[in-house]
Structure formats: C-alpha cells, structure tokens
C-alpha cells in the first residue's frame, strides 16, 4: 500500500512539474496545452449552441465555426508534432467556466431572440478568450523562432477574430433589437 501510494504521489508531482513554466518555451507549451483543451471542449459545446439558436444565420455561423474549431485542433496537433511534444490537453479552467455560463444562459432563456442574444454574448466571451490566448501564443512562437507554429497560430488567430466579428454583426443586425422587444 505504501509503495503504491508513493508511486502515485511521485507521478502526480511529475505531472505538476511538467506544467511549470520556467522560461518562455515552457510557458508556450503550457499555453498550447491549455488552448488545445479549450478547443476540444468547444467541439463538444458548439453543437448545443447550434441546436438552441433560433436564428438560421446564427446557427449557420456557429456550425461553420464548429468546422473551423476542428481545424484549429488539427493545427495545434501539427504544432505539437513538429515540436516533438505529445498532444496533451491541460484542462482550461477559463473555458470550462465560460462554457458553464453559456449552458446557464441557454437553460434560463426561452428560445427566440433573447436566447440568441445570450448565445452570441457567451460565444463572444469564448472568442475573446481564444483571441487573447492565440495572440499571446503567436507572440511567444515568433520570439522563440518557431516560424511554423507562428504561421499556424496566426491563421487560427485571424479566424477567431473573423468569428467574433461575425457574431457581433449578427447581434447588431437584428437579434439584439428583437431581444429588447421581448422585455
């Protein structure tokens, strides 16, 4: 019993140490694992947002972003592979909190413009987290001379910004106005 416990404890300590960041490269790798986890979580969450959107334009935009998110995961896996790092997801506490918030919005609103406005707001919060993370990782990659990673991260960053702008455009086109009328 004692030996098994010590082996488990040593394994846990090793896992924690592997996530510590002693330099920019470590911080880059920890960030990659975090956003990898976030993207994988979004692949599970976006279908629920699509299903609960009443606006065909919103549902289509979210569905398109689900397709892009799968590509983001592939790009991250390509970065991990090129660096010789195992593609491991480090639980993203921030995304998990934002996902829970989006679930709460869906649960507490009736289908229609109000729910759509809430889905858009939740989606934009998720986008802002992704934009901030990809922006930082892109900068790290450039500073580390990781040109391939920098290029892949820049592509994803650009797509995240476009997705955020698309959500904003949908909200401003009529959803927020129609949600206001539901009060």
From TrEMBL:
Species: Flavobacterium gawalongense
Protein name: DUF892 family protein
Pfam families per record: DUF892 (PF05974)
Source organism, top-level taxon: Bacteria
């Amino acid at each position: 019993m004692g030996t098994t416990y010590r082996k488990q404890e040593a394994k846990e300590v090793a896992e924690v140490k592997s996530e510590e960041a002693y330099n920019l490269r470590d911080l880059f790798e920890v960030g990659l694992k975090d956003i990898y986890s976030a993207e994988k979580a979004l692949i599970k969450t976006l279908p629920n947002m699509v299903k609960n959107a009443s606006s065909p334009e919103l549902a289509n935009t979210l569905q398109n972003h689900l397709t892009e998110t799968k590509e983001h995961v592939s790009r991250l896996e390509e970065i991990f592979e090129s660096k010789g790092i195992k593609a491991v997801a480090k639980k993203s506490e921030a995304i998990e909190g934002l996902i829970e918030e989006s679930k709460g919005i869906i649960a507490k609103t009736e289908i229609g413009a109000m729910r759509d406005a809430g889905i858009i707001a939740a989606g934009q919060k998720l986008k802002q987290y992704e934009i901030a993370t990809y922006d930082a990782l892109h900068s790290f990659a450039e500073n580390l001379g990781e040109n391939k990673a920098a290029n892949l991260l820049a592509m994803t960053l650009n797509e995240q910004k476009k997705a955020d702008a698309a959500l904003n455009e949908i909200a401003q086109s009529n959803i927020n106005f129609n949600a206001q009328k539901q009060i």
